[in-house]
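debug: dumping io for the single-chain case to check the tokenizer round-trip. Nothing else runs in this session.
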Amino acid sequence: MTPTASPSPAAIPSPAGTLSIQEYPVPEGSHPHDVAPAPDGTVWYTAQASGELGKLDPVTGETRHIPLGEGSRPHGVIVGPDGAAWITDGGLNAIVRVDPQTEEVQIFPLPTGYVNLNTATFDRNGVLWFTGQAGAYGRLDPATGQIEVFEAPRGRGPYGMTTTPQGDVYYASLAGSNIARIDVETGQATVLEPPTPGQGARRVWSDSRGRIWISEWNAGQLGMYDPASGEWREWPLPGDNPQPYAVYVDERDIVWLSDFGANALVSFDPATETFQVHPLPSPNANVRQLLGRPGEVWGAESGADKLVVVRYR
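debug: decoded output
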């Protein structure tokens, strides 16, 4: 475990004047990939380049790193129903659990070959689902430790993942340019095609109504699928060369994206169908994932060795 102290710079106002953006440095060379704010105020992040799980105290700016094992290349991190940090570790080809109190590391190796683990989500039964870009998705039952791995119906590409309030699980396939709904009982995935061919569906997130929002990396668009009606909608992001990577929907059903092309976070109000662009303070920030808690949206700036938070109340 590597404790480090980082300064906590003052927040800067957004151009809209209704929110603030603050960055937190993390140890140089960490290249944080994903971030997960916990209910207790802790912010976890995957230090992908160093094979560690990072822990930020936003009050002091202090960070602490927990080694995950030789060969670790952690990608995603989420907070589970048990309060622990759950990690998809491509280097270990395993799901990793880190206890928030003891910092004990528990490793659940996949029973298959390398799948290039990416993102995870918990369903309403407490089962963890995960994606592998090599063409797989799967589930882990924390109660038994049993892991099942399934072949994705369209092969390579499973990437982002989300669970709806209704309990449905979806993933996005970047290489396959589709999304899929998983039957949590049988494990079967049903492919759903966005209107734009080759759009590069990268990440997905559900809003409070169960609508699925999609970052369309190749097309520079925000997509939406409504399971209730079967309707699709798509909106081009503002700017000359938008590259929407991450997507997250906050508790107000405002949609947030990270835009590599504009080096910005972008918010979208579905009620007015309007975007707002919020430039990031650091150049080439490369925010690869977004996650939040009420009043805050957090991102991991893999290109700047920083975490960033937008506070809107």
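debug: round-trip ok. The first strand starts at residue 2 and ends at 4.
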